[in-house]
Amino acid sequence: MSGTIGLGNITSANGMFNITDASGKTTTVDLGTLMAMLQADRTADLDAQINEQMGAIKNRNELLSQMTELLASLRKLKAEGCDDGGANSAQSNVQLTLDGVTKPLKGPGESWASMLGLQSQWTDVIGSRGDKRGDDLTKWNSEWDANIALLKNHLDTMNNDSQMDMIKLQQLMEKRGTAMQEASRVMDSSHQTYASIIRNL
């Protein structure tokens, strides 16, 4: 049988168990076989969860790599005295290439800020540092610092989430190991029972 058995599809009669699958087909098995099937079914379900979790971790790690590179790019742009290339900026053609993908840092359309869900929190940095003096320069620095802090906080949160994902994956792997051990134990027990019956015939 394949797929999840589900306890609602199992009935018992005369010491045997009837399992009805999704197509309506019924199979009759003994307790040992039933337990082994349930453990195998549980293992398959855990395998699916593990694969899904590993996929999520892979995607998150790729995004973390991009965000780390983006954070370094923000600091570089600030050090070079640039603006952020936003809609109100003089340098609206500021483009960043991360992992072979080129997008504007900030803009009205698709950008790195919008991809990360930070567009609404982004502070538009207007003009270059060379044009700023006094309070304007202080404001320019604070605008860049706000964006750098925003991205760093987002990166820190995702790093924490990544650690939780790894813990969840480890727990699923442990559950799978336990299910496999239980399936082996049930099979060994059934084999010993059958062997004892045959010896006593």
Descriptive terms for the model:
201 residues; three-stranded antiparallel β-sheet; mainly alpha; 59% helix; two-stranded antiparallel ribbon; single chain
Envelope shape: rod-shaped
Major sheet size, sense and barrel closure:
3 strands, antiparallel
Report how far apart the termini are: 31 Å
Gyration radius, in Å: 29 Å
Low-confidence stretches: 87-92
Q: Biggest sheet, strands in spatial order?
A: 1-2-3
Structural class: mainly alpha
| Mean pLDDT level | 79
N to C succession of SSEs = EEEHEEHH
Number of strands: 5
* Tally of distinct domains: 1
Percentage beta strand: 5-15%
Count of DSSP-assigned helices: 3
Helix proportion: 55-70%
Q: What does this protein look like?
A:
The chain is mainly alpha-helical. The protein has one domain. Helices cover 59% and strands 10% of the residues. It is built from three helices and five strands. The strands form two sheets. The protein has a three-stranded antiparallel sheet with strand order 1-2-3. A two-stranded antiparallel sheet has the order 4-5. Helix 1 (31-79) runs antiparallel to helix 3 (134-199). The two termini are 31 Å apart.
List strands and helices in order, with pairings.
Layout: E1 10-13, E2 16-20, E3 26-29, H1 31-79, E4 95-98, E5 101-104, H2 112-115, H3 134-199
Antiparallel strand pairs: 1-2, 2-3, 4-5
Helix pairs in contact: 1-3
Summarize the structure.
By secondary structure, the chain is mainly alpha-helical.
